[in-house]
Amino acid sequence: MSGIVGLYNLHGAPIPQWLLRRMADALAFRGPDAQTVWSQDFIGLGHALLRTTDEAASEQQPLSFDGKVWIIADARLDGRAELQRKLAAHGSQVALARPDVEFVLHAYLAWGERCVDHLLGDFAFAIWDGKEQTLFCARDHFGVKPFYYAHVGKTILFGNTLAPLRLHPAVSERLDDLFIGDFLLFGGPQDTSRTIFADLRRLPPAHTLTVRGGRTVEKCYWQLAEQELRHDCRATEYVEQFQHLFRQAVADRLRTNRVAVWMSGGLDSTAIAATAKQLLTETNGSCELRGFTTVYSTLFADPEEYYAGAFGRAASIPVSFQQAGTYAPFSQGSELEAHHPEPSGEPFLAAFLAQAQEMQQHGRVVLTGLDGDSVLNEWSRPYLKTLFQTQQWGRLLRAIGQHIWYKREIPQVGFRYWLRNAVGAQDQTDDFPTWIEPSFAERYDLRERWAQFSQERCAHSFRPHAYGTLRSPHWPRVFETHDEAFTRLPLEFRHPLADVRLIKFLLAVPPVPWMSEKEILRQAMRGVLPEIIRRRPKTALAADPLLTHWQRGEVNWLRTLQLPALITPYVRPNQIAHIAQQSEAAQLWQLLPLISLAHWLRSATGAISKPSEVTNELTIGCR
Question: How many CA within 13 A on the CB side of residue 621?
Answer without folding.
Answer: 16
